[in-house]
Amino acid sequence: MQKEEQVSFLAEKIRQADAVLIGGGSGLSSAAGYNHYHWLPYMEKCLQDFKEWYAPTGQPYYDQIYSNVEMIRRMNENIRELRVTSELLPRCNECGRIMVPWVRDDTFLEGKDWREGVLCLSESEEILNSRAYKRQRHLYSRRFGRNPAGFKRKHSGKGNVMKMNVYQEISQIIKEADGILIGASNGLSIAEGYNIFADDAWFQENMGDFREKYGLRCVLHGFSVPMKVEEKWAFVSRLVKAKAMQDEPSEIMKNIYALVKDKEYFVVTSNAEDHFVPAGFEADRVFEMEGKLTQMRCKNRCHDEVYPNQKAVLAMTEEEVNGRVSKELLPKCPKCGGDMEVNWGEMSSFTETKNWKEKAARYQEFIQNLHGKKLVILEFGIGWRNQMIKAPLMQLAAVEPQARYITFNKGEIYIPEEIKEKSIGVDGNLMVALKEIRKEI
Which helix (H) or strand (E) element contains residue 275? Predict the structure, then answer.
């Protein structure tokens, strides 16, 4: 949607509204000409005397920085009742005022060290953007099929960009493995055509009424917006039937299963659409860390069991009218008679279920059983910021001497320095990569 369309859309929504609630913050003040974070020209006229006396932080008095290690040592040795004496407080060599730590605020961007650092960075960018460097970088990527350690690359990728020897190397690693640990997140779902973050064609076509009524812009948004229980289950049942109750597993899932089916394996995933088990994976070896759309639990939390919901979902989708299901079809708790909800949501609830605890224990048992052995970690579609799955997997690769770490993620590969020698990063079309690897096994 273009900016003009967004403005028109917003204007129309305002015209249709019965009431408008406005929230305004510092950005609005700045747009109106008042910025309380920075020392602006108009402040020179009305606050000059305060500036000279207090030296507001919007404009540093002097831009040199100093080491504080020795000062910190002395202050720590002389702390009394959470205070240090005024004599020990560090003071500026130029003006005598108290010094502050050189950390992120709106003053350090003006410091001499920061400006010199930016200069170095700009010089580095000139090198990185040079044709010679890009050519060398391209050859490196094509030859080894991996990114330099810690490098985060963002581009579209074009199909089979990896040399065959990389796929052969991965195939050989899998053949020799004593066990395989699979980690998967949203990138794998997106490769299969399911994107919980996107206002894509599927969402607009299948959830258009909810989109119009509630202003929804993605699947995830639909779970966060309050709705009546009859509407919430209408939304959920449509989603579960379309995305979690497949007639046939995707080719991607079939290929992943083919890689590991003859090995000891375990899957840890944040994907809730339940695509692993239908593809052949054993349910006890798949740990859905954020719950599963094909399960439901008591909304009152009267007990910690989870239940399959496919039968209820089919009944609700068949009888749904105008974005609602009848109260008679709403699933009820077999213990307390209260409402049920899909087993996907906030960590404070689904991590307390018996099923979640059992899967977490099996995950730890699998890791313990593979300790000291040839463990291969296959990671599919996990972003570099992920702390739930990716960070523990990288840490595991670092501490296990025989572990190999292979990450697949289109447009973004992240491999830390500590494990670069035992890692491979595959950036490109996942379907192509899996097919090529299967050929060698």
Answer: none
For residues 418, 424, 427, 431, the Cα torsion angle rounded to the nearest 10 degrees is -140
* Predicted local confidence at residue 116, as pLDDT: 55
- In a domain, residue 49? The reply is yes
User: Is 47 contained in some domain?
Assistant: yes
Distance CA 389, CA 330 (A): 34
Handedness of CA 190, 192, 196, 201 (dihedral sign): positive
Residue 280 inside a domain? The answer is no
Give the integer Cα–Cα distance in Å for 2 and 197: 19
List the chain residues with pLDDT less than 70: 1-3, 26-27, 30, 33-66, 69, 73, 75-76, 79-84, 94-95, 100-164, 345-350
- Residue 64 has what pLDDT? 65
**Closest by Cα among 111, 278, 253, 100 to 182:** 253
Measured CA to CA in angstroms, residue 212 lies from 4, 233, 320 at distances of: 19, 17, 18
Q: What is the pTM of this model?
A: 0.65
As a whole number of Å, the CA-based R_g of the chain is 28
* Residue 209: partners with Cβ closer than 8 Å, 6 or more residues away: 322, 323
Residue from 244, 309, 237, 304 nearest 277 by CA: 244
Domain count, the chain: 1
Cβ 306 vs Cβ 353: under 8 Å: yes
SS3 content of the chain, % helix, strand, coil (to 5): 45, 10, 40
**Which is nearest to 296 in space by CA: 341, 236, 245, 337?**
341
Q: What is the pLDDT of residue 135?
A: 42
In a domain, 27, yes or no: yes
Model pLDDT, residue 134: 44
- Structural tokens at position 218: 């993605």
Closest CA to 100 of 129, 147, 65, 73: 65
DSSP string, 318-333: HH-BTTB--GGGS-B-
For 306, residues 6+ apart whose C-beta sits below 8 A from its C-beta are 292, 295, 296, 297, 343, 353, 354, 355
What domain range is 9 assigned to? 3-54
The count of C-alpha atoms lying within 13 angstroms of the C-alpha of 12, restricted to the half-sphere facing its C-beta, is 8
